[in-house]
Amino acid sequence: MGFFSRIFKFREQDSSSPETTWSYEDNASELVLDPESAATLLTEFDIEAAIASHEKWKQRLQHMLEGRQPLTLDAQQVADHAACPLGQWLQGPGKEALGQYPAFEMLMARHRYYHTQAAAVVALAQAGEQDKAWRLFQGGYRHASNQVTLLLKELRRGLGQ
To answer: Does domain 45-158 correspond to CATH entry 1.20.120.30?
Structure first.
């Protein structure tokens, strides 16, 4: 089972239905690379480090909201999804190697959303809106973080690691 199909359960298609726009067999979104390409990709990008980095960010934001860390983050910088190592890889070598797969596009979109949510948490906290910042942290931000982590784990699994 490929990367994309593990994330989404494809429903049975009724060829007489007007909603049928694709068939499972024609779905070119599966992440299937030859072993050599997968090995090369894995040497260029450390998926475990990317997952750990996102977990550290979650902890950093939580500590900030708890008052255990100063509010020194800049919301605009946090919003820049292309500035972190994962974003740089997604925009460069990752896109070059995997950009043709819709699942990769989903990872890019979820990563952008993650940064948007993190920046909003920072902005709310700095504006003194602690309750709103906590609700966003526990809701939209945590959900976005979990999605990025899940997609990275699926990418790792799809690459045979």
So the answer is: yes
